[in-house]
Amino acid sequence: MGTMMANNKSEPTTGPVFRTPPDRRIYAIGDIHGRLDLLDRLLALIRQDSAGRPKETSNVLVFLGDYVDRGPDSAGVLDRIGDVGKEFETHRLLGNHEAMMRDVLAGDANWFETWGRNGAAETLESYGLTGPWSAKAIELARRRIPPAHRRLLDGLATHHVEGDYIFVHAGLRPGIALEHQDPQDLIWIRRTFLDSDADFGRMVVHGHSISPEIVVKPNRIGIDTGAYRSGTLSCIALEGSEQRILQTL
After folding, report:
1. Burial label, 26 (beta-carbon count in 10 A; 0-12, 13-18, 19+)
2. What are the tens digits of pLDDT across the range 68-115?
3. Range of the domain at 68
4. pTM of the prediction?
5. What is the C-alpha separation between 61 and 161, in angstroms, rounded?
6. Are 39 and 92 in contact (CB under 8 A)?
7. Could you tell me if 19 and 238 are in contact, meaning their C-beta atoms sit under 8 angstroms apart?
8. With contact defined as beta carbons under 8 Å apart, do 41 and 248 qualify?
9. Cα–Cα–Cα angle for 26, 32, 33, nearest 5°?
10. Would you state the pLDDT for residue 15?
11. CATH code where residue 130 lies
């Protein structure tokens, strides 16, 4: 099952110092992919971390997307990220897996096969639906998935900005202003973003691209540590100019 770990060592970046807004403590959480067990451990770490810090600072959760597919309890994860808003200010971003799920449930056949190859079966199983991947399975899912989960999927944002940080699921296309970014890039882009040393105007905090540990570059921080297969769900805690790592191990 692993143990919980809080790594409070700050991870320095080169170049400019990036800061959160005053009195804002931000916890950005990487790709969960159905691992409710890990999410609950990480939320416990966040509560522990925030309890020992100034009470007048607001605790803000930013979920970077990919809540569903591959892991065993996508339904439970959607429940939890909805409920945790009662405890923390919460911003939930759209991942490519939520986009596929949302669009297929809405009747978009273009994503049917792609979602089927990328963990849809595990998501449907979390709602008590088993059997072969088919149009019938989707029809059953439309009746079984709670309206609250459908509303949550429909309401996910493509990005969130706090101070000197911008949070997205996958990344940004270099050389394009935020207001002109293609929403598909924000949830799907990989190498064009990952290989770029461009200045995006803010530090980009993202998930989507798995690495064994959190990646800190001068222009981006990647926090997808492959929780569904590694058991490590990662969070970067940002407060003033400080960056702290919280992880399940």
Report:
1. buried
2. 999 999 999 999 999 999 999 999 999 999 999 999 999 999 999 999
3. 4-248
4. 0.94
5. 12
6. no
7. no
8. yes
9. 155
10. 67
11. 3.60.21.10
